[in-house]
Amino acid sequence: MEIYRFRHLTLVTLLFLRHACVDADKTNRQQKTYIVHMDKSLMPESSNDHLQWYDSSLKLVSDSASMLYTYNNVIHGYSARLTSEEARLLEEQPGILSVQEEVRYELHTTRSPEFLGLLKDAAVTESNTMSEVIIGVLDTGVWPESSSFDDRELGPVPSGWKGECEVGKTFYKSSCNRKLIGARSFSQGYEEAFGPIDETAESNSPRDDDGHGTHTATTAAGSAVVGASLFGYAAGTARGMARHARLAAYKVCWLGGCFSSDILAAMEKAIEDGVNILSLSLGGSVTDYFRDTVAIASFAATSRGILVSCSAGNGGPSPGSLSNVAPWITTVGAGTMDRQFPAYISLGNGKKFPGSSLYSGKPLSSSFVPLVFAGNVSNTSNGNVCTTGSLIPEKVKGKIVICDRGLNARAQKGLVVRDAGGIGMILANTESYGEELVADAHLIPTAAVGQATGGIIKKYVFTETNPTATVATGSTQLGVQPSPVIASFSSRGPNPITPDVLKPDLIAPGVNILAGWTGKVGPTGLQEDSRHVDFNIVSGTSMSCPHASGLAALIKAAHPEWSPAAIRSALMTTAYSTYKNGQGIQDLATGLPSTPFDYGAGHVDPISALDPGLVYDATIDNYIDFLCALNYSASMIKIITKQDYSCKDGKEYSVGDLNYPSFSVPIQTASGPGGGSSAPTVVKYTRTLTNVGNPATYKVTVSQETKAVKILVEPEVLIFSKPNEKKSFTVTFTTSSMPSGTTSFDYLKWMDGKHTVGSPIAFSWS
Ligand SMILES: *[C@@H]1O[C@H](CO)[C@@H](O)[C@H](O)[C@H]1NC(C)=O
Ligand SMILES: *[C@@H]1O[C@H](CO)[C@@H](O)[C@H](O)[C@H]1NC(C)=O
Ligand SMILES: *[C@@H]1O[C@H](CO)[C@@H](O)[C@H](O)[C@H]1NC(C)=O
């Protein structure tokens, strides 16, 4: 998987270096951070309070173990440094639900407001209540001097706000204002794993030395900045989705990653502080919900009415590559916009090809120079991707080099070419990236090309005796069609944990996004890049997530009483999955139409989402029923919910009955004892709609594209005579057997003549 954060290379290097230090430190070697989940109902009466009780539980197994954080909102429990033996002993003590080793998460942007139609209808999106909504962003911190944090248009900080502006060596009380109303940093888990923060390398404060956090925060809710651009590219007014909402930064990601004890602590505080929306552009490996820190903490946030929006991951286009799939989380994939940054390649044979680039330095001369393929001028096995030191200078000097995408950062490859004496680069997609063109602020003249173009150019190099080329960059192009298309990198379904819940939920812009940047590093994030920019253009589901977070804030402002599930439902049921001409949204990885496993309910359409007509609401109890349907034990459920809850004996819980705005129907291709195919399987899902509009009569339509499944909806008409009225319906799927691996899709729509409440249905046979 290619990493969309350009700093990852430095990051990996640091990891190695620092691991070496940790290894040398023999005394600490055995200790790791564990998250200890306590069963508060078992607190002995002799304990004065839960903190004392937590402390004594720890003392039972270790005199020396130190507690990092205690938690009360997100979980009941604490994090502590323990040896694996101590952790095992602790888990056996009464009152302990589980002791889980901490995991490391990784971080997974002005056209988007226009592309999303937000400028057409300013009145609806700039209501008075907008400035009451607070978005908390867990990321690498913020660069408070960014003009996107200008607060001139905003009134006093919302009265209920309890957050703080934590002061550090590089962060001041004055760093916060009426836009950036809070900033905190959480590093105890990180420092336990990596040693004390080296302030020459990164700020021990909420300050963003990376850029990622400033980019995500300003995408969600940055103020409007006129005349923003990156070296003139993407010039225009930069603004966040909810430009009058407030921002609070929670720095949890450091040079070495983002640690779960710190993430828990940040979400603990964010809940207390009073945020309304949480935006997390980070992810770890997917695991069961009771082991997944972000899922557990998000459950607590959701139960307090806070919508949690997370990036789907950059693991695409492999199937099942999603992260952050808990059904109470809004999982956001990435699509392109109608904007490109063109570059032009001319070959010695007269052929010309389009590419993409954000190079802004001295252009190459227009005369042709020799062109080589990296794989032919390197002495390492993966020399084709231009890793550090892999190119042979005598064979590269004065030439343009074709480097394949993958393994190291894209802009880094240009430096490798430059260090070997090369003067230009053609960055070619390999198969998994398809025709996706991600633009970068390269340090040498570069054009990125899709796999097909790359293939033609390579063939020319392999067959011509003296291949030559030249590369030039152009100016920003708008109105590119088709758009959106699914980004190749966007992680795909099916849902690897619960296939009965369709994920991702939706897609939002995540390719070549312009937003605010740090003053600490240049636009490529590379050490060698000494340029400073106020805005940068980057790509990833990290960028699409804060778009959804900001749009959720718009809906929250318009409908303050809506639950997180209702807000997500509004975003999902009004999303679109076809272009105006009726054709399905394309997938950049394949050039073919994409499916709900790629985009969930589709691409967000915020103006429609403000008036969805009906919503699929869900309460915390519905999510607990879902956990019962997963057959989770009482203690697993308690880790997530902090509540005593017994799933009712004899009650039939069904995962498919979770009141979700989309449908996913995994079908077992059951074979009888003789191997023969079995009779049709019947699966029944129940859903409840809540009227959030005027009295209306809705009729259902189902697309019935899937021949192997008969879909029956009962009733077919729902009459809502008052606001907030609820009506249920059932969908019966009668499925016949299909070869394992078959997938098929349909759509179910409730329409009243004004609203279309759409849900995708995904069938998969296994
Ligand atoms: C260059 O590399 C390609 C692909 O690996 C290979 O097919 C070709 O033979 C190589 N050409 C030379 C001159 O080594
Ligand atoms: C090629 O291989 C040799 C020997 O393994 C190594 O010393 C050298 O640094 C490599 N790279 C180049 C560019 O020659
Ligand atoms: C839960 O257990 C029931 C009864 O054993 C079984 O039918 C059902 O398939 C299980 N559900 C899941 C999600 O494992």
Automatic annotation (TrEMBL):
The keyword Glycoprotein applies. Residues 657-762 form the Subtilisin-like protease fibronectin type-III domain. The keyword Glycoprotein applies. GO terms for molecular function: serine-type endopeptidase activity. Residues 132-586 form the Peptidase S8/S53 domain. PROSITE patterns: SUBTILASE, SUBTILASE_SER. It is found in: Secreted. This is Subtilisin-like protease SBT1.7. It comes from Abeliophyllum distichum.
